[in-house]
Design brief:
Blueprint (H helix, E strand, L loop, with lengths): L31 H35 L3 H14 L4 H13 L3 H14 L4 H14 L2 H14 L4 H13 L3 H14 L4 H13 L3 H14 L4 H13 L3 H14 L4 H13 L3 H14 L4 H13 L3 H14 L4 H13 L3 H13 L3 H10 L2
Length: about 375
């Protein structure tokens, strides 16, 4: 930021007789051109002062953003934009901070303001599309990604992101097509291989899924969730040893990766290794005390070992943290049946059936109707 040096301006004041009428003074020492120059310099200096304040607020906003203080960053970016409405970086960063606290409406508002100035800005379109995805407005998100691709057919990240949107809406064939395009443009795009593998896994093309997942792992070995996904594919291929190995690598890469502990615990349970399973479920819940799936799985372990009260408590927790967990409703019903609570069991099976679990409907039909 340039610092403008203010010129010294001298104004002459003339004495008047005491008690005489004071008349408006006219500066007769400056010509009209000099007066206009003086005023323009003052305006330039005032504008420079405002821009400097805007920049200072922006810089403080960046510091707050980097520290994860997003609300404070939003206040500072707002101050910056208020002082300088043309400061697009401040407006974009305010929208980004809003996105990170899930204030999607504010983020979209800021992105819309920027797109009014530059409708083809790929970075802004991308952030708006990500925000639409967060809101579940997949149609609007896909339209933004398609707009990016239309302007730049080499935008591999846009193909990848569009594939993610299609995956989220179970349009797996269309998602595969987008991941194919992303990989053709960037053959070392590890995340695209990972997500294409997920498409193959969802459509039971397990060997294709295995090939892509192994490729993703080879391209980016530190990614814990790549190893976790590889474990899930191997599990579906009945390769329990390979799955355990992959889940173990996942928690080695990231000791806080609670989902891999939960998944490995599931295999130990299937192998009848209840104590090892419980150890993994306990670890998952230690890391994430609100992880509904781990409560469900630990509850099943307790039920298996006839610790029905402990099982019931875990199923209650699973439902508390995820009311849509149909397996928790089903298994709580089974546990309630063992505790002689037939009415409660039927109510739980009915709820699980309403959530779409066919097995629960069978329990309800056989025991409650």
């Amino acid at each position: 930021m340039k610092h403008h040096v203010l010129p010294w301006l001298f104004c002459l004041f003339f004495s008047v007789p005491l008690f005489a009428q004071v008349l408006p003074l006219t500066d007769t020492t400056l010509s009209p051109e000099e007066i206009r120059f003086r005023d323009s310099v003052a305006m330039v200096n005032e504008k420079a002062r405002i821009l400097q304040q805007s920049q200072e607020a922006y810089n403080e906003g960046v510091k707050a953003f980097d520290q994860g203080a997003y609300q404070q960053a939003i206040r500072l970016f707002t101050q910056s934009v208020t002082l300088n409405p043309e400061f697009d970086k401040a407006l974009y960063n305010r929208g980004l901070a809003a996105f990170l606290i899930a204030d999607y409406t504010s983020c979209i508002s800021d992105m819309n303001s920027l797109l009014m100035k530059n409708p083809a800005d790929a970075a802004v379109l991308t952030k708006r599309a990500e925000t639409y995805t967060g809101l579940g407005d997949y149609k609007a998100a896909s339209e933004d990604y398609l707009a990016i691709i239309a302007k730049d057919p080499s935008a591999y990240k846009a193909y990848y992101a569009l594939g993610e949107v299609y995956f989220l809406t179970s349009r797996f064939d269309e998602a595969l097509n987008q991941f194919d395009k992303a990989i053709s443009l960037k053959p070392d795009f590890a995340r695209a291989y990972n997500d294409r593998a997920s498409c193959y896994r969802m459509t039971d093309k397990l060997q294709d899924a295995l090939r892509d997942q192994q490729k993703a792992v080879s391209l980016d070995p530190p990614q814990a969730f790549f190893h976790n996904n590889l474990g899930s594919i191997k599990r579906k291929l009945d390769d329990q040893a390979g799955a355990i190995e992959a889940y173990t690598l996942a928690v080695t890469k990231d000791p806080a990766y609670f989902m891999a502990y939960n998944n490995r615990g599931g295999i130990y349970f299937e192998q009848g290794k209840i104590e090892l399973a419980l150890k993994d479920f306990n670890k998952a819940l230690e890391i994430n005390p609100k992880y509904s799936s781990a409560y469900t799985n630990r509850g099943i372990c307790y039920h298996k070992t006839e610790k029905y009260e402990l099982a019931l408590a875990d199923f209650n927790k699973a439902i508390e943290y995820s009311a849509g967990n149909s397996l928790a409703w089903l298994n709580r019903g089974i546990t309630k049946e063992m505790l002689k609570d037939a009415e409660g069991a039927c109510a739980d099976w009915k709820k699980a059936a309403e959530l779409g679990l066919k097995a629960a409907q069978q329990y309800y039909t056989m025991d409650c109707e």
